[in-house]
Each structure stands twice: as C-alpha cells, then as structure tokens.
C-alpha cells in the first residue's frame, strides 16, 4: 500500500520546492545550449570559404593564334593589288593601321582592318611563316592555287564570324574573376571588401557597433544591421551577461567573452571570438553549384514567425539575446508575402549575386571553349588544303592535264572567285 506523504517527509518536500524556486532557467520554453549548432555550422561553412580565398572558373582555350595564322595564309594567297591597299610607305615598310581616307569603306572594313593589316604586315616581314612555307604554295599550278585560295578564303570568313561571336563574350568572361570572388566573399563574411585575410571587427560586420543586440540582430529587410555572416554568427552564439549561456552554438563553440545585450555597444570580442573557430581550408576552384548548395543549406534552416524570417532559435518570434525570448538574427518583414531564403539577409544576397555571376561565367567559358575549338578546326582544315592538290599534281605535268571532271570544278572556283572579289569579303 502506498505510503502517504506526512510530517516525516517535510524535508524532502521543502528541498523540491527550493529547487524549483532557485532554478536559473524556466523548466520549458527556453533557448538552450546547442540549439543554434546547426545554423552555426552552415555559417561556419561560409566563413571558412571566405578565409580560403578560392579561385574561380578559368578559360584555358584561346583561338587567337589559330585565327591569326589563318589570316596570314589568306593574306599570302591574296593578290598584290589587295595587299598593297594596306601599305603606307613601301620603302619605310609602314602600314595603314586604319582604313586610309582614300579608300571608301563598304561598311565593315573599319572593324576588320586591324586584323587584316596585322596579317599583311606579318607576311611581309615573314614572321612565323614556317607552317605556311611547308604548304609549298609555289608548287601549285594556277588551277590548284585558285582552288586553294577560294577554300582558304571561305574558311577565313567562317572563322571571322566565330571570332566575332567569341569577342561578344568578353564582358561575361570578366564576371567573377578571382579578385572579385575574393572581395565578395570577404564582404559577405566579414564586411570587408578586400582580398586576403582580413581582421574581424564589430564595426565591419554590423552597420555600426553602437547599438543594442535587438537593434542589431532584428530589423526590417531595408534596414539590416547584421550585414555580414559573422554578424549573424555573433547574434546566434551570444553569451549574454545575464543568462550566461556560453554554448548556444554547440560545445565546440563555447564562448568566454560576454555581450551586455542591452548596452548600445557591441564589443569586438562578440565577433572576434566566434571568428576564431573557423580555419581556412584548401582553396579549390569555386563553382556556382558549390556556393549555391551552401546558400540552400542556410535557406533550409530559416524559420518563419508571422512575417519574420528567423535564423537561429526563438521562443517568442523575437531576437533579444535572452534565452527566454530568442537568440537569433531576423528580418522582421522577410516572410511578408513571400518565402524567405538565404538572400533575405544582406550577406546572403551578396553571395547569391556571386553565385549567379559564377554560373554565367561557367556557361560563357564553356561556349568560348567551343568557339575556340571550331576556329582551331577551321585553321587546321585550311592548312590541309594543299595535301590533295599536291597529290594530284604529282601525277600530272600541268593544269591542262587534270581529269575532265575538273572542268566543272574550275567553273565552280571561278564563280566563287567572282563572288569573293566583292570588297566586303575579299580578305
């Protein structure tokens, strides 16, 4: 039979009552140690990335040399009356670097002239002509030379169009260069738009170090104060001077310095201590996919309370730095009429822009590489045009000894020559 609680048990009852009354934290509904560990980890990932100062995608291919060689071959095959147009002073061996006034520009010469004159000048000075000399153009009979000239000219025109398309990619190829990547990562992580390792400070990661915890960590989207990743981490890991919890971000991120959250001063230790937990990792090439995945990890941890987008833990929908309310960073209107994501926060928006530019750069690099390969293939084809004609010549003494079927070919070549004699496609 159960024994009733009587006078003899007053000591035990008193002890229980005293324990309840002297507890420093509510039994339930309080932010506890480790509650922000998951959010801290995703922020750690972004800080470590910034510290590693990675490089971005690179374009390794280049078709400039192939294109210039093709134009030199085309110039070599061009008649003297054409190449003479580029000569300024034959004795001084100088050349018109732009369309001279005496020549009427049919519409596109101004754009093409620099490449043309460079090729003409290189041929005249016999610069790097070894590959062209190996073609033995002087050994071709007139018909073979005419065929080769038309073929090379057509290939040069195709290459020119591809080079024009390639040149149009120049702007996007400048996106997300290494310097920009490193600056933007440091800006997002530390509020410091410099490259290399930067020194964290409260006045950098927050818009101002002269504000209370709530004013700094909980604002509207247009008036965000915690503008860097490290500021968000400081809001999540804060060791308030009253509740004295040091492990909101987990046991591995135990803080020693306190932050008087009601004071209008954010101590540097509030940001320098969390920053010390992160080390720079190996710096692989940064891709849009890897950066986007880190942002998606942030998005998955954002919670919504009414209209507020909250990263961290809040019992009341507010961020006060107190375990009884919320230890978090929030954008109070971040979920108003929309689903919040990492870009809801200022630092997340900076990183999203970087991820978008990385994606565009990657796509452009791929396209430029494809164009370079096509131009290189055209150049290779052009330099093989004499292989067949030389084989044919080896068995014939003169052009008139060519097989009868070449008559139709000659007609075709002449038609092509007439077509390409037009000044717009001459060279």
From TrEMBL:
Main location: membrane
Coiled-coil intervals, chain numbering: 145-172, 351-381
A Pfam family assignment: VSG_B
Signal peptide feature range: 1-29
UniProt domain Trypanosome variant surface glycoprotein B-type N-terminal: residue ranges: 19-376
One GO CC term on file: side of membrane
Keyword tags: Cell membrane, Coiled coil, Glycoprotein, GPI-anchor, Lipoprotein, Membrane, Signal
Annotated region described as Disordered, given as residue ranges: 395-427
Compartments (UniProt record): Cell membrane
Keyword Metal-binding: no
InterPro entries: Trypano_VSG_B_N_dom
Membrane topology: Lipid-anchor; GPI-anchor
Keyword Cell membrane carried by entry: yes
Task performed by this protein: VSG forms a coat on the surface of the parasite. The trypanosome evades the immune response of the host by expressing a series of antigenically distinct VSGs from an estimated 1000 VSG genes.
Name by which UniProt lists this protein: Variant surface glycoprotein 1342
Source organism of the structure: Trypanosoma brucei
């Amino acid at each position: 039979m159960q024994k009733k609680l009587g006078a003899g048990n007053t000591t035990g009852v008193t002890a229980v009552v005293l324990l309840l009354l002297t507890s420093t934290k509510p039994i339930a509904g309080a932010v506890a140690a480790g509650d922000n560990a998951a959010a801290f980890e995703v922020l750690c990932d972004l800080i470590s990335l910034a510290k590693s100062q990675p490089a971005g995608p690179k374009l390794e291919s280049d078709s400039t040399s192939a294109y210039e060689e093709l134009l030199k071959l085309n110039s070599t095959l061009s008649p003297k009356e054409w190449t003479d147009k580029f000569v300024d002073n034959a004795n001084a061996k100088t050349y018109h670097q732009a369309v001279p006034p005496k020549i009427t520009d049919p519409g596109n010469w101004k754009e093409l002239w620099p490449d043309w004159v460079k090729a003409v000048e290189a041929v005249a000075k016999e610069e790097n002509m070894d590959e062209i000399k190996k073609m033995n153009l002087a050994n071709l009979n007139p018909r073979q030379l005419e065929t080769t000239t038309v073929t090379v000219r057509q290939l040069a025109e195709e290459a020119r169009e591809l080079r024009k398309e390639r040149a149009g990619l120049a702007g996007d190829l400048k996106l997300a260069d290494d310097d920009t990547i490193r600056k933007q990562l440091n800006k997002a992580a530390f509020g410091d738009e410099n490259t290399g390792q930067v020194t964290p400070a409260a006045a950098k990661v927050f818009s101002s170090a002269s504000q209370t915890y709530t004013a700094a960590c909980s604002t509207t989207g247009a008036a965000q104060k915690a503008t860097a990743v490290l500021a968000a981490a400081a809001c999540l890991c804060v060791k308030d001077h009253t509740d004295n919890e040091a492990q909101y971000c987990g046991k591995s991120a135990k803080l020693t310095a306190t932050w008087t959250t009601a004071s209008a001063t954010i101590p540097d230790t509030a940001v320098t201590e969390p920053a010390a937990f992160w080390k720079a990792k190996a710096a692989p090439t940064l891709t849009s996919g890897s950066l986007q995945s880190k942002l998606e990890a942030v998005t998955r941890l954002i919670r919504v309370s009414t209209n507020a987008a909250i990263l961290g833990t809040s019992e009341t929908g507010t961020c006060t730095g107190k375990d009884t309310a919320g230890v978090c960073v929030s954008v109070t209107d971040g979920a108003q009429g929309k689903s919040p994501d990492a870009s809801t926060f200022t630092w997340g928006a900076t990183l999203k822009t970087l991820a978008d530019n990385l994606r565009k750069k990657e796509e452009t690099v791929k396209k430029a590489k494809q164009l370079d390969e096509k131009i290189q293939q055209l150049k290779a084809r052009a330099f093989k045009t004499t292989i067949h004609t030389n084989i044919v010549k080896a068995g014939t003494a003169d052009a008139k000894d060519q097989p009868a079927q070449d008559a139709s070919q000659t007609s075709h070549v002449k038609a092509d020559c007439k077509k390409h004699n037009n000044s717009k496609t001459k060279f």
